[in-house]
Write a structure and sequence with these properties.
The complex is a heterodimer of chains A (about 250) and B (about 280). Chain A is an alpha+beta fold and about 250 residues long. Chain A has helices at about 5-15, 35-55, 55-65, 65-80, 95-100, 105-120, 140-145, 160-165, 195-205, 210-220, 230-235; strands at about 145-150, 155-160, 175-185, 190-195, 240-245. Chain A has a domain at about 1-120. A 3-stranded antiparallel β-sheet of chain A has the order 2-3-4, covered by helices on one side. Chain A has a two-stranded antiparallel ribbon with strand order 1-5. In chain A, strand 3 (about 175-185) and strand 4 (about 190-195) form a beta hairpin. In chain A, helix 3 runs antiparallel to helix 6 and helix 5 packs antiparallel against helix 6. Helices cover about 40% and strands about 20% of the residues of chain B. Chain B has helices at about 20-25, 45-55, 75-90, 120-135, 155-170, 175-185, 190-195, 230-245, 260-280, and strands at about 10-15, 35, 60, 95, 100-105, 105-110, 140, 170-175, 200-205, 210-215, 220-225, 250. The longest helix of chain B is centred in the last third of the chain and has 19 residues, at about 260-280. The radius of gyration of chain B is 18 Å and the shape is globular. Classes of the chains: A alpha+beta (about 250), B alpha/beta (about 280). Chains A and B meet through helix 1, helix 2 and helix 6 of A and helix 2, strand 5, strand 6 and helix 4 of B.
């Protein structure tokens, strides 16, 4: 068997293909081929399952260990990793849960957990030092464009996660309610905050490259008073901005 | 471009794992060097931890993602990632494994063994050469722990390793626990294995723990779990190697069910005592 054929068949069998090992040139020496092979399959499956348990702790809690592991095995076989840097493994728990017709609340918990992981691994190193703004003139400040933290992402939820996230041991605590959360990460700890219209407006305007003068001017036409100081405080304290450029 | 080849001291170091970051950042224990899996450091927050610790510790890279034995070759994106990280961290040594993990773009997260054939020798050597050319320095390759042997192998494992080193100019990272695990699983003599490795090619040594599992047939299999202290037999093999060789940088690996970091330090101290006996 040439090396290309051996590696392909081995990989396919690890990922669940029903290939027989009869023509695999494996020496048995007191242990059947299937048992020797199983050690490698088990290493792959169990190590990737461990990673998924770390990525999806609340999904694990809600499903229970047995059902969660079943979902992990399906995920690993259907969407195996394609990168040895496993921080990108895996966004597909949501898809597997959907395919298994799991409770929509659990599906969205998993989706939110993946967004949190993504934020953690995208967090840039340097926190914004707001004291640098003190050195700017009023004119400079008005021309300044705030850089939004690349780890930030916006999550549209169908449930009241912000009320029960820390203690989400049972689904009855979640009630239906449309919310938008802004997901961020600070010092390696990802979290989300409830996003109101003003915060969303500031974030979206900054992402479009609008300077502070334009943001304030355009806010004049909007409902409610635009509380710039409050918004800046929230964005800086929650690591939503990483700098300001003229 | 070369990295700092002479940085890793010929003393006993430990592997750095996520669970021990706080300990190392706060305590800065007196350990001569650290080794990391670069694949765990893609995120900027983790790279910052690394650059912080690099101020006080020489660091080596022990990659698990190059898949040097893949017929498909080495992934250029991963090579670039290693090169970029190496520019930041300046590792003293860079190593990976005599194995494969990637096929048709899928990464299996395990180190699958190669048959020891001329074909595999050529594939592995080509991939090592490409890696060395890309990184601009020689690398080390680690002998595998294995749970199966291929009937169509044309040579024994130590002979295969020697030929790879000769073809490519790389060095060997001799994992003593892997020698012991493979020897137990396949009925080899571990000392005879070690006697076949010329001392001039060993650039680093790994020591680790393993686990015993019972197969349905009743046969005991050793599994390279890196989740325990180094066993007495492996310590004896290590002492045998050091007695035959010059001092070699030695690393205590522990990847799973991590203990209190002081237990890791104690293991490194045991290795250092064996190195120090050689010195007398």
């Amino acid at each position: 068997m040439n090396l290309a054929s051996l590696q392909k068949k081995f990989k396919d069998k690890v990922l669940g293909s029903k290939i027989l090992l009869d023509d695999f040139p494996i020496i048995e020496n007191g242990l059947e081929k299937e048992h020797r092979f199983f050690l490698y399959q088990n290493n792959t499956i169990s190590s990737l399952t461990d990673i998924l348990q770390i990525c999806y702790p609340k999904t694990l809690q809600l499903l229970g260990s047995n059902d969660f592991i079943k979902m992990c095995h399906q995920l690993i076989f259907k969407y195996p990793p394609t990168n040895p840097c496993l921080s990108e493994f895996s966004p597909n728990m949501k898809r597997v849960l959907q395919a298994n017709k799991q409770d929509p609340k659990v599906i969205q918990v998993a989706d939110l957990e993946w967004h949190l992981i993504k934020a953690k691994f995208s967090e840039p190193v340097n926190l914004f030092d707001p004291s640098t703004l003190m050195q700017w003139s009023e004119n400079d400040l008005n021309q300044g464009v705030f850089q939004i933290n690349p780890a930030v992402n916006i999550f549209s939820a169908n449930y009241s996660f912000h009320l029960v996230w820390e203690d989400i041991t049972n689904l009855s605590k979640l009630y239906e309610e449309k919310n938008r959360y802004i997901i961020t990460s600070k010092k390696g700890i990802p979290y989300f905050i409830l996003m109101d219209n003003q915060l969303e407006y500031f974030i979206q305007s900054s992402l479009q490259g609008h300077n502070l003068k334009k943001i304030i001017k355009d806010a004049e036409g909007k409902k409610g008073e635009f509380d710039l100081l409050n918004i800046l405080g929230q964005t800086i304290n929650n690591n939503l901005v990483i700098g300001c450029k003229i | 471009m070369t990295f700092c080849l002479d940085q890793i001291p010929k003393k006993a170091g430990v592997g750095l794992r996520h669970e021990h970051y706080n300990y190392f950042l706060k305590e800065r224990p007196k350990i001569p060097w650290l080794e990391i899996h670069p694949e765990n450091y893609k995120a900027p927050v983790y790279q910052k931890i690394l650059t912080d610790l690099r101020e006080d510790y020489p660091i080596s890279f022990h990659s698990v993602g190059l898949s040097l034995g893949s017929v498909e070759g080495v992934d250029e994106n991963h090579l670039q990632f290693l090169k970029n990280l190496a520019k930041i961290v300046q590792p003293g040594l860079i190593s990976d494994h005599v194995s494969w993990s990637i096929n048709e773009g899928i990464y299996l997260n395990d180190l699958i063994p190669l048959p020891y054939t001329k074909e595999a020798l050529q594939v592995l050597s080509d991939n090592i050469q490409r890696t060395q050319d890309f990184l601009g320095q020689p690398i080390l390759i680690e002998n595998p722990s294995s749970y199966l042997e291929f009937a169509h192998s044309e040579m024994a494992e130590p002979d295969f390793l020697n030929q790879v080193v000769k073809k490519t100019g790389c060095q060997l990272l001799l994992d003593v626990n892997n020698v012991y695990v493979s020897a137990s699983n396949h009925g080899w003599n571990p000392q005879e294995y070690i006697d076949k490795i010329p001392k001039t090619i060993i650039g680093e040594i790994h020591l680790a723990g393993h686990s015993k599992v019972m197969a349905p047939s009743g046969k005991q299999v050793l599994v390279d779990t890196h989740s325990d202290v180094v066993c007495d037999d492996v310590w004896d093999l290590y002492a045998y190697i050091i007695n035959k060789n010059n001092h070699i940088p030695t690393l205590i690996e522990w990847d799973d069910e991590l203990p209190d970091p002081r237990i890791l330090m104690a293991e490194a101290q045991k290795a250092q005592e064996i190195l120090d006996v050689k010195n007398r």
